[in-house]
Write a structure and sequence with these properties.
Elements: H1 2-24, E1 31-34, E2 37-41, E3 56-60, E4 63-66, H2 72-81, H3 104-113, H4 121-128, E5 181-187, E6 205-209, E7 225-229, E8 237-238
Parallel strand pairs: 5-8
Antiparallel strand pairs: 1-4, 2-3, 5-6, 6-7
Length: 243
């Protein structure tokens, strides 16, 4: 009798657990599969940006990455569920705007709560270039058509915008150029100084990618990289998750 009851009850409990997990994590972003491959990372276009040289080949394993930058509504749901302070929206509204004023550690904690992580720098660039294609910007190499794909200073917007309002790149990823800078996993290092990769005295400085609404077109280039302190909260720095 007990064996029969266990057989009948277990499937119900299992399905209930799945629903429970989904209901308690409504903030999970939509993820896009990216097939891995090899590509040349860095300034393959002009070969002038010393911060993105030397160009070097990188092999990427297949991975998933967020279709959009994480939004205020997604982060707010996480913050409320875990008793965290809500990030400031500076009066511009929340909802589907890309979340900002998030430190590197807070971004990583959000991703880890879902079993995800921040993308590696190489993954980020590979995805921004639609699988390693020679795309100067995410979705195009034509500066004249950049406005179709990215929100930059030329749009005269002083705050993070609603995600997905411009065109996606060939992988279906939005806003990888423009809108807000995005935290990636690595701490800041120079390609020309590989030993620096292992110098963890510098891990307080983390890399941001993609440019933002407050930056010129040049910073939205797919190879453009810069570093900032991991505990910085900025009105133009957000993130997306990977796994």
């Amino acid at each position: 009798m007990w064996k029969v009851l266990i057989v009948l009850i277990c499937p119900f409990l299992l399905s209930s657990c799945i629903v429970f997990q989904q209901k308690n994590k409504p903030y999970a972003p939509e993820m896009i599969f990216v097939e891995g491959g090899k590509f040349m990372l860095g300034d393959v276009f002009e070969q002038k940006n010393s911060d993105a040289l030397p160009i070097h080949e990188v092999e990427i394993s297949s991975f998933y990455i967020g279709r959009h930058e994480v939004t205020f509504s997604e982060y707010d749901a996480f913050a409320i569920a875990t008793g965290r302070e809500l990030p400031s929206d500076q009066g511009y509204g929340r909802d589907k705007r890309a979340v900002v004023n998030i430190t590197w550690d807070e971004a990583m904690t959000f991703c880890k709560s879902l079993g995800y992580r921040l993308p590696s720098e190489a993954e980020w660039e590979y995805a921004a270039r639609s699988g390693g294609k020679n795309h100067l910007y995410s979705g195009t190499s034509n500066a004249d058509s950049l406005r179709e794909f990215a929100i930059t200073r030329s749009d005269n917007i002083n705050f993070s915008y609603r995600v997905g309002k411009r065109q996606a790149n060939d992988l279906g990823l939005y806003d990888m150029s423009g809108n807000v800078f995005e935290w990636v996993d690595e701490f800041y290092q120079f390609y020309s100084m590989p030993d620096f990769l292992h110098d963890h005295k510098n891990d307080g400085i983390r890399i941001i990618r993609g440019g933002s609404f407050g930056e010129e077109k040049s910073t939205t280039r797919t190879y453009w990289r810069t570093g900032t302190l991991r505990d910085v909260r900025a009105t133009d720095i957000g993130f997306r998750c990977a796994k």
